[in-house]
Amino acid sequence: MAASFTYHRNEQLPTVKAGYPGNKLFGRQFANGEALYNPDFSNVLRWKLLTENPQKAEKKADTWVPAVVDCTAFLRGTQDGLVWLGHASFGLRTGGVTLLFDPVLFDSAFLKRRHPLPCRPEDLAGIDFLLLSHGHRDHLDEQSVKLLARQNPQLRVLTALGMAPVLRGMAPTLAVQEAGWWQQYDLGPDAALDIYYLPASHWHRRGLADMNRVLWGSFLIRAQDKLIYFGADSAYDTHFEAIEKQFGPIDVALLGIGAYKPTFMMQHSHTNPHEAAKAANVLRAGHVVPMHYGTFDLSDEPASEPLRTLHDIAVGGMLRGELHAPAVGQVLPWPEWE
Predict the structure, then answer these.
(1) What is the pTM of this model?
(2) What is the DSSP letter of 35?
(3) d(CA 191, CA 92)
(4) What pLDDT, on the 0 to 100 scale, is given for residue 122?
């Protein structure tokens, strides 16, 4: 007997893709497009207990970490810019509005930073919008959310369907707006930017009984006549084509390039550097900023391999957009980019 399914979206928000019925739910589990994906726990056991990393010695010898520069002055200032805080965490300012993406500001039992933050967590004040792409702990950190809620009473959270109950358990007073794929958030009548929640090919789990109960996705920001795409966590799939078809060429694409080995474990969760370059090319991105590498040890590839590989791809002419690989904390002047 086929599993029953329904479609779900936030009926208070506009859906920008014509004919899109909402995100497909099999029972209470969200799907990747039309197909339900449940990561196989046996792959974890195979990876951790039965697989020898062929790059084990190379990885151990590779002590590379991203350079880090202090970004406190930017955070306290007013100029527009984009700053990488490490992993998939970014700050973006446009026209006096400050956005923060997937902040993980503290170490935890399972996530130890390989480099310091480029600021004190206490310096992350004056944040207008907190964009949370999905619920995995390297993107959604409870201690970080609690701190940001205390320091930013005006903070508004833009996130995925099903996330509000998770966040209420962390910071009950946060204003949370959920969206499904292809939906535009309501920022108010005077907003100088547009923000959309868009597809990604991924999955959700934080506990033992919440598999795919919260949606995952990516973000698109339209500001100053530019399109900035935050790809979050995603495997390579057809959604990149669909996003380009809906919105046209992307000006700035923030795309993950790390945590891709072993392939049997990671291929349905993340893009490797070649896939990230392919995604950037499909998006017709004018500028590419890599992320999701160098900060946490999540996989088998050596630390320096993702960025080195992407650089080789760019030098070889296989990346159409301009590559920007900033130091952690370096401010990128994205409004000035042609």
Answers:
(1) 0.96
(2) B
(3) 15
(4) 96
